[in-house]
């Protein structure tokens, strides 16, 4: 296997990785408008962290609906507040409703108006795929295989769009019970105006216990990878993806002559949630 690592963690010092790409076109479309951005995420959300920085740079006020109990905190939320983002806490039940109902966010904003613009969880709007698709055009060759972590499925959908049916894609789900992502990838591709490409495989058994769960084996892998390469990994997404890729290689599921591009999607600020400094 000939392996390249696409270092999207280096795209921007704060708005890193796939979040930079996902926010690019949705925010460009709002340039010059007087809008207030609203989105959702957890205590260590890479999306909210990136959005807070991007909103501050673009001059947009922003509010985050955070899945946590009132009074809970994290270094990520401290960053968001310092950048001017308003924080509102929602229960787990209310958070699930935000996923199911595209208008449910309004009940958490007493002053909701037409000026408020909703950005879905993870920044995974259909227009986000156009920014992710540009990742492929930056490569100097068309790989046989591209591999990336999957949260909402938008990054994989964007890469599929960029490849235009060429090569093969493997997405490594970062959480349990991720089979529904097949439907989500198809929905996003259609909504963004792309064909529903099928040249991909979704791996659902490398979650190491669930979302944000880290096994001792995964933790050791991330530490060894850094010692060997000098490249930091966070264990929630990219660490699980590279761990899975290594297992596929060792089990002979990747041809020796294959040109493989693995995508480092950033999110290193989340390391602070594990007591580590990025």
TrEMBL record:
Keyword annotations: Pyridoxal phosphate
Required cofactor names: pyridoxal 5'-phosphate
Coiled coil: none
InterPro entries the UniProt entry points to: ACCD_DCysDesulf, TrpB-like_PALP, TrpB-like_PALP_sf
Tryptophan synthase beta chain-like PALP domain boundaries: 2-266
Matches recorded under Pfam families: PALP
Signal peptide: none
UniProt family annotation: Belongs to the ACC deaminase/D-cysteine desulfhydrase family.
Protein name: Pyridoxal-phosphate dependent enzyme
Source organism per UniProt: Undibacterium aquatile
């Amino acid at each position: 296997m000939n392996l390249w690592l696409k270092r999207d963690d280096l795209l921007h010092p704060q708005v890193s990785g796939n979040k930079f790409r996902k926010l690019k076109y949705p925010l460009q479309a709002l340039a010059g408008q007087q809008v207030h951005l609203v989105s959702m995420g957890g205590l260590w959300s890479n999306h909210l962290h990136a959005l807070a920085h991007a909103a501050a740079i673009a001059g947009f006020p922003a509010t985050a609906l955070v899945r946590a109990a009132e009074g809970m905190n994290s270094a990520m939320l401290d960053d968001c507040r310092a950048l001017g983002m308003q924080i509102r806490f929602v229960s787990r039940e209310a958070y699930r409703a935000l996923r199911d109902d595209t208008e449910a966010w309004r009940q958490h904003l007493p002053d909701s108006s037409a000026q408020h613009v909703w950005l879905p969880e993870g920044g995974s709007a259909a227009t986000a795929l156009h920014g992710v698709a540009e990742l492929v055009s930056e490569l100097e060759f068309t790989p046989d295989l591209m591999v990336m972590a999957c949260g909402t499925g938008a990054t994989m959908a964007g890469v599929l769009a960029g490849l235009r049916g060429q090569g093969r894609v493997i997405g490594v789900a970062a959480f349990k019970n991720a089979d529904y992502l097949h439907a989500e990838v198809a929905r996003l591709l259609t909504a963004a105006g792309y064909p529903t490409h099928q040249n991909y495989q979704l791996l659902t058994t490398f979650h190491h216990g669930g979302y944000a769960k880290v096994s001792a084996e995964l933790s050791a892998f991330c530490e060894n990878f850094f010692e060997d390469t000098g490249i930091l990994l966070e264990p929630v997404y990219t660490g699980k993806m590279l761990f899975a890729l290594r297992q596929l290689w060792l089990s002979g599921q990747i041809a020796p002559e294959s040109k493989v591009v693995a995508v480092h999607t950033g999110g290193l600020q989340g390391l602070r949630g594990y007591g580590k400094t990025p």
